[in-house]
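Lab channel / #folding
Pinned by the channel admin:
"Please post every new chain as: sequence first, then the C-alpha cells as a reply. Keep commentary short and put observations after the output so the thread stays searchable."

First post following the new format, from NK:
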Amino acid sequence: MNNSVTHTARLLAAGLRALLLLTLVTGVIYPLVVTGIAQALFHDQANGSEITADGKVVGSSLIGQPYNLPPKKGRPTPEPDLKWFQGRPANGLGSNSINTRYQLILSGATNLSADNKDLIQQVKAAKAAVVKDNSVPGYTVRPSEVPADAVTSSASGLDPDISPQYARIQVHRIAERNGLSVSAVGKLVEDHTQGRKLGFMGEPRVNVLELNIALKALVAKTS
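Reply from TO:
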C-alpha cells in the first residue's frame, strides 16, 4: 500500500514538474523569443503595419477604411465623401451582414455566383454610382472604363488597395472638389502606384489610405 502511494506521489510530482517546465518554455520563453525576433527584424509588420500621419496612427496598410460623410437621419448607410479617393465596395459577407462598412468583426466574400440577381444588381448600381460621382464638367467617365475593383468587394471585404485605373478615374473629381490641378492629383496617383511584388506577383495597386494622406498634405500645402 505504501509503495503504491509513494509511486503515485512520484508520478504526480513528475507530472507537475513537466507541466511547470512546459508552461515556462512554451508559455513564457518561446513567446518572448518570437516576439523579440519579430520586433527586431519585422517591427512594422509585427505591430500591424501601422500608418501614421501627423504623429498619430491613422490605420493599417493592410486594412481598408471608409471615407464617408456623417450619416444623414433616415438613411441606412452614409454617403461617400467625394473629396477623398474611395476604395472598393465593402460588401463583405453580403449587404445584410454586420461587415458592410469595413468593420473587423467578420471578413469574407459574398459567395454569390456570377449569375446571382442580387450580385448583378449590386454591380450595376455600383457602376452607375462610379460613373455619376466621377463625371465632372469637361470629363465624363464611360461605363466601359470602370474597372472590376470599383464595383466588387474583395474576398475579405477589407482590401486597402485599388487598381491604378480606378484611382485615375477619380482624379478629375478629386481635383475639382479640392481646388487642385488635374496634373497635381494625377502625379499623386503615379507616385503611390506600387508595382507587382517581385516584379511578377499580383497586380499594380494603390493604397487608398496612403494616397489620401498625401492628398491631405497637398491640399494643406496649396491652401
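NK: The chain has two domains: 2-44, 51-222.
TO: also worth noting, Residues 2-41 form the longest helix (40 residues).
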